[in-house]
Design a protein that fits this description.
The chain is mainly α. It has helices at residues 2-16, 42-47, 50-78, 83-109, 130-161. α3 (50-78) packs antiparallel against α4.
Length: 164
């Protein structure tokens, strides 16, 4: 799953044109208020209990499934001749949904409450320019990769804590 996130981001950037497709493109300052960033200090992350860690990941992947749908819709409009990109976005959304289900099962097994599903997107500005939609897609695909890395780390910690 982690390899797929890197491939998705690179494919996404390739289809957006300059400046996105320029070598070394990075814009870490770009964020979306409707998508929680995965970045957290090690000290903060380490201090989280199992419920907080899983709850945050659950909320993030719920938001990501909604955002990946929006990005896929945007790219269908902006890059209709890009079946590879559209397929990768669809596969990422399915993986995020699968991870949501797995996390819910783990939370249930641990006796933890599952956060309610929310509409994390809220009102979407449908008049957004092509550049704004490309920026939004960049943030979503980047954060999908970061959250996937964090989820792998979170689940490895749980596996070590609760061996079969």
């Amino acid at each position: 799953m982690q390899k797929n996130t890197s491939t998705l981001l690179q494919t996404y950037l390739q289809y957006q044109g300059s400046p996105f497709s320029d070598p070394g493109f990075s814009a870490p300052e770009l964020q979306l208020s409707s998508l929680p960033p995965a970045a957290v200090s090690f000290r903060t992350w380490h201090a989280l209990d199992d419920g907080e860690r899983l709850g945050r990941a659950q909320g993030a992947f719920l938001a990501l499934t909604q955002h990946l749908q929006l990005v896929g819709d945007d790219q269908s409009d902006l890059n209709p001749g890009s079946p590879i990109l559209l397929a990768q976005l669809g596969a990422a959304r399915l993986r995020a949904q699968g991870l949501l289900g797995n996390m819910a099962a783990i939370m249930t097994a641990l006796g933890l409450p599952i956060p309610p599903e929310e509409d994390t997107l809220g009102l979407v500005p449908f008049g957004a320019s092509a550049f704004e939609r490309k920026c939004r897609g960049y943030v979503v695909t980047r954060e999908y990769g970061h959250w996937t890395d964090r989820a792998v780390r979170d689940l490895a910690l749980l596996k070590a804590k609760y061996p079969r």
